[in-house]
Amino acid sequence: MARNHLFDGLLADKLSSPAARKALFATLPDDGRRYTYGDVEDVSGRFANVLVELGVEPGDRVAVQVPKSIEAIMLYLAVVRAGAVFLPLNTGYTPAEIEYFLGNATPRIFVCDPRKRADYEALTASLGIGLETMGVWQNHDTSAGSLNDAGLAAPTGFNSVARSANDLAAILYTSGTTGRSKGAMLSHANLLSNAETLVDVWRFTADDVLLHALPIFHTHGLFVATNVTLCAGASLIFLPGFSTEAVIANIPDATSMMGVPTFYTRLLDDAGFTGDLVRHMRLFISGSAPLLAETHVQFEERTGHRILERYGMTETNMNTSNPYEGERRAGTVGFPLPGVDLRIVDAESGKALPQGEIGIIEVKGPNVFSGYWEMPEKTKEEFRDDGFFITGDVGVIDADGYVQIVGRSKDLIISGGYNIYPKELELLLDEEDGVLESAVIGVPHADFGEGVVAVLVPKAGATLDEAVILERIKPKIARFKQPKRVVIIKDLPRNTMGKVQKNVLRDAFKSLLQE
Ligand code: MCA
Ligand code: AMP
Fold this sequence. Notes:
single chain; alpha/beta; Rossmann fold; GMP Synthetase, Chain A, domain 3; 3 domains; 17 helices; about 25% strand
């Protein structure tokens, strides 16, 4: 039978016999349900049948902004099985933000939260995009959206559409320095090769139980956590989101956990998170944002476990990881993964730098995406002629080969593991009445690592008010991107070239978000 590279690569051996199909894929502590690998095949088959019925053809995009549920994972697999391209969107995005993604990606259908259907009817109708809904199922009897209903009525059997290694499996949007998001095109082979590598280097097996508290619209929760689990034939404890209470309640049944640094600092802040509670754990992994060396040390002191930090990007999946065996070095992201070439280059000349010198990190490998959706120019700008992708992260390789990320050449804020591009906010703020110009910066934040601060300069004669500005941008942009504070100053500091000196602002306001 023709193969679907990603689905069959992840799952064929788990579906090969009735006994294998009975293995557990997920438990859902919220409603007591259990999902076996057989259920994964059956439910993804139901949704794949529904998608085909709705007119989804191979290569079509299916855009999805739905609350976290196990059915949403089944929808991801269904899209892959139908030969289409999965396009997940952050649940925090406002309709104004979603409009751009739908216009840019022109999906066949858009699946939204049933509670938000009315917000999208006119937009999808005007773009000629089908509108469907998917909500959270509390049990098998109650449905929660048009896709949930249709899935219940559809047959389970579905012959996955043949797809080869280079066919697209997903598009994930990631903002650029220009402030407009670009769709990173990820192939079946990008996703499968990275999952296989991570299973290997992190020693995942069918005995693993991964505590899943991440959102599933980004690389971390969707591909790293979920694909690795599927690939290993392991299982998930699938939580609707992160809370320290839920993690503490469920961690006794887990063997492993993946999280952003905020997960770990919040757990350490809770006296109920003790060494005894997690003595049995095999592995804690952190990524998406820098884990402070201090957190690494505190975590080991409390639990005896050394968090394993790794480094990735939407465009590349995972690039480097600290070793499973051997020293997990605090403040570093470890070694390039097997099959990944990583070099440090001079930002200006693009020439490779010797070990120990700081420069831009570039990567090449089977994990690296093929380009940005319908943006050949942008794609060209971010690749070297020899195929290396320019990450925009600034790093250095130490004498033992550990990669350390020391900064970013791209103007990016990472808050609680979410990326925020200042330009996008600056464009919005500049449109506000009375604003002459703005600069958006990230400053230290005890909980989120970095928090957003907007620095505004009023037009001559105008007065600006922090609360009014915050209120006005509220409906325009996702909550997590909104400034935690707005400060108003007379002039922005500039260098002799006229460029705003954000480092000066970051220094001036470095304590603004500290308690
Ligand atoms: C929530 N808020 C935030 C954030 N999260 N503000 C800034 N940054 C955030 N990350 C807002 C809320 O809207 C709220 O505003 C206020 O801050 C307090 O929210 P709180 O209830 O404390 O937040 P929460 O719901 O507990 O969420 C915090 C969280 C969450 C659990 C850390 O942000 C999270 O799950 N982050 C994970 C992100 C992630 O998966 N990143 C991976 C990207 P108000 O009170 O006004 O409503 S993939 C990636 O980066 C690459 C490829 C990789 O390497 O993995
Ligand atoms: P995204 O745009 O969501 O793909 O985020 C990718 C960016 O997150 C990378 O380019 C890095 O700047 C950052 N990142 C991911 N993992 C780490 C890490 N372990 N340490 C520091 N930065 C990280």
